Amino acid sequence: MRSTIFFLLVTILFNTGCRKDPPGETVSTQKLILTFDFMIDGNPLQRDTLLYMNEAGNQYMVNEIQYFISDVVLHRPNGDPVLLDAWTAIHYIDSDLPDTRRWEVYDTIPAGSYDSVSFTFGINEAKNQSLMFLNPPESFMFWPEYLGGGYHYMKLNGKWLDTNSVVQPFDFHLGIGQIYAHYPDSIIGFVQNYFTVSLPNSAFSLPANGQQQITIVMNIENWFRNPNTFDFNHWGGDIMQNQEAMRLGCENGHDVFTSIVAKQGSIEQK
Which of 5, 44, 65, 97 falls between 20 and 30 A from 139, CA-CA? Predict the structure, then answer.
């Protein structure tokens, strides 16, 4: 009896190992790589120097930027959109950590033409849950529980020169807003400030066994203008508990992001 079972197992393993794909049928592999960059006024960001002037006339510098994007969608002209969520639906970008600025998407992506790319800036209400990131650097993005919980959408930290020519720190932080009965306590409601970004000029074509790299550029100056002129002298350096200030910033986010679509290249087969 034992010899019969052994023979059957060997036969199954042999047949499985020798199985071939049907003649003429090949498996194609397409790859998408997203990279991330920071610019101000069309030039690469220079940090830690009072080099910039915003729309309100505030002289300012940027020290660091961390943010999340989620639910990236590839839109096809004739077909269902492709949601990138096979490995993770949320990606963290950090100006101090080069590895976070390159995302080799794990998803299997159909070959073909795509009209555009969109994503959620921040994390939507269903997914933005406290303690889902247990390790840094993502865990350092926590949003205080009493302010709505979950995680920051973005930390943009820097300094500006105030009306007395004194350098002041600012934390331009975006996340869940609060509605107060009596500020600064008595919170009676929360505002979800995440929003959808449709990347301009992000159309691309992905051939079978090809790859595509798209750079997502944050144009930092646009956080502070159009349609709202954001004045640090008016709003101060900390806006986490100021929904009106966060609302202005999020409304300005409509044209913060642009894209650069690289030339295609083939993937080395292994």
Answer: 44
CA 122/CA 152 separation, integer angstroms:
7
Predicted confidence band at 88 (pLDDT cuts at 50, 70, 90)?
confident
Task: Judge whether 36 and 216 are in contact, CB under 8 Å.
Answer: yes
Question: How many CB atoms are located within 10 Å of the residue 38 CB?
Answer: 18
Interacting residues of 39 by C-beta distance below 8 A, sequence separation 6+: 45, 217, 218, 219, 220
93 within 8 A of 84, measured Cβ to Cβ: no
pLDDT digits (tens, 9 = 90+) for 199-251: 999 999 999 999 999 999 999 999 999 999 999 999 999 999 999 999 999 99
Percent of the chain with pLDDT over 70: 87
Note whether 209 and 269 are within 8 A (CB). Answer: yes
Q: What does the alpha-carbon distance between residue 34 and residue 62 come to, in Å, rounded to a whole number?
A: 23
Spatial contact of 145 and 119, defined as CB atoms under 8 Å apart? no
Closest CA to 221 of 94, 58, 102, 96: 58
- Please state which of the ranges 64-73, 223-232, 235-244, 260-269 shows the lowest mean pLDDT: 260-269
Write down the domain spans for the chain.
Answer: 30-266
8 A C-beta contact, residue 61 and residue 159: yes
Q: What is the pTM of this model?
A: 0.86
Tokens (6 digits) for 61? 């510098």
122 vs 157: CA distance, rounded Å = 17
Q: What is the DSSP string of 203-243?
A: -EEE-TTEEEEEEEEEEGGGGG-SS----HHHH-SB-TT-H
Exposure pattern of 250-267 as b/e (b: 16+ CB <10 Å)?
A: bebbeebbbbebeeeeee
